[in-house]
Predict the structure.
Amino acid sequence: MTYLDHAATTPILPEALEAYLAASGAVGNASSLHAAGRHARRRVEEAREQVAAALRARPSEVIFTAGGTESDNLAVKGVFWARRAADPARIRVVAGSVEHHAVLDAVGWLESHEGATVSWLPVDEVGRIAPDALAEVLDDDVALVTAMWANNEVGTVQPVAELAALAAARGVPYHADAVQAVGQLPVDFAGSGVAALTVSGHKLGGPVGVGALLLGRDIPCTPLLHGGGQERDVRSGTLDVPGIVAFATAVEISVKAQEAFACRVGALRDELIDRVRAAAPDAVLNGDPRDRLPGNAHFSFPGCEGDALLLLLDAAGIACSTGSACSAGVAQPSHVLLAMGADEDRARSSLRFTLGHTSTQADIDALVAALPGAIERARRAGLTKSTRR
Amino acid sequence: MRVLAAMSGGVDSAVAAARAADAGYDVTGVHLALSRNPQTYRSGARGCCTLEDARDARRAADVIGIPFYVWDLAERFHEDVVDDFVAEYAAGRTPNPCLRCNEKIKFAAVLDRALALGFDAVVTGHHARRDAHGRLRRSADPGKDQSYVLAVLTADQLAHSIFPLGDSTKAQVRAEAAARGLAVADKPDSHDICFIADGDTRGWLRSRLGEQPGDIVDGATGEVLGRHAGAYGYTVGQRKGLGLDRPAPDGKPRYVLSITPVSNTVTVGPAAALEVTTVYGDRPLWTGPSPVSVDVQLRAHGSVVPAQVTVSDGRLVAELARPVRGVAAGQAIVGYQPDPDGDIVLGSATISHATSLAGVA
């Protein structure tokens, strides 16, 4: 199989798997007071320090969660609730318009259920937020700003430091969903000036179902999950020791390897883009041509439907993605491309290829071999839309 | 040969896909998402548009061991089937949406896309047969036969269709599903119109067309007998729900004889006035000779009646051998040549109107 969907999930690193298996053999609830509990707690705290060191945060700023979606929800809702509780006038959320659904829908929920007003930050044609757009909407009524580090669909990297500095100057907490960024780009929590940062395990070689929210020590946050208060009283639930240990291992390794990864995978990605363009001259590269995730290539293929291409490539043993799908598995035109000014046809004709730590040149060879035939058939299928009516 | 199996999430299409895979076809399963707002769970009447149905289809594909995708045809379905359904009722006719869905969606939009993508045919779980000559025949299970709703398919559409269940009864299909470990083996049949979840067609139409009060008129005397809230809520041959407080002079039940959208009138009368002897059809699709003596079926799951059918100038005329009651415009008239190996479909047309010797009914 040619796996070109690393942004959906990437294979677990052998070291992370080993750490997971080793930790799952030991009994002990990290909240228990006896020796077994202390041992489990020690593993968790070591993992916390590992994550903190890798991402330049303080250990107390690392809140382990069940993954990116939970971290995003906790940051968006938790910070909103806490900031509004401190000052009822703060009911506005400023959010990027190309956010992942875990942020997008959490913000939408605050709007529909909590009386929040929302300012959506527009993006330019490559999916980038202009800092001026943020400066314009920042005011005393803003509860928080949330805008991702790098886009999961088109790979565009946001000017996070500039955006976070603008928010900080107004005393507004800034949350960045960095699920796609960690391991691919340098991510420095302290240096970036963000107040909260989402990390997910399975996007960087850790297990699925574990992640973290890095939350500045002085950032108020109301819990989503109430219970034992295990994580700084902001997040409850028995700590998943094997998951956390494996997650920390993967964070440490992927952050250490980030520069080499960006270099090697970035070069492979550039080759993929060149060869796809040679094979399909009318393919349009979406996203920022330079400032993008090293593993990301995202195209629109005019006249084709992305899901037809996906089916045909899948039949040829090539795994890629059209973007977001709803629960029934129906492809929706991407809100990211629409926000970038693409029309619905271009949005529906798009396909994402994402490379990762196991990618090789053979993957690109296989893609380029299968792509022209798939495009031809998908184009014919696209033409049938108006016939036999 | 690469084939695309349309999988509703029901037992029939699951077994059809499995049989196609056993027959050596390279099968890909597709669930058609037809609802704009899919319900999460089935409730009341069963459709085929819920997330649960999509999951059932996916699980069947897993068990069979074939790739599976969901195709979003909601917009197309809405335009070609749902809007057509509403427009037909508004025009005083009684449409058959399953037939329209086969004609416009399953064996048009889906088939065209499948062929373009390199598939050779579409496989469905319809209970009907396609014989070696490419002719459509009734299923081996007369109670489940669906040749009526497939009779609108052209020879070209039929040539790219595979109906693996035609020689089986429903009971055999269920038993086979259980033996294959398909969880849908005992899933109830869908009966009602899939996009009207609660089965209340009149209420559903009212929510789209609004209240349109008008008169209920006696067909013989022209006397106004009552009021209705919308002529679209009535079907020719309907007896129940007329809401007339005055009984007929002869004490016998009254039936809907006709619906006249222009005057928004529902005309009622005795059963005898429902009888027609000549049926006229538009848009005929006829492969048999003309004129010809055949059996005709005038509604889904209806019985057949012998008739002399003539097709000419884009019109079909059927002289029935005996009077038939309750022939509704908008339904299909389907001609069958009786045959021990399954009656052969000779063609179809959309009923435009019907007459009796006594006059227009």
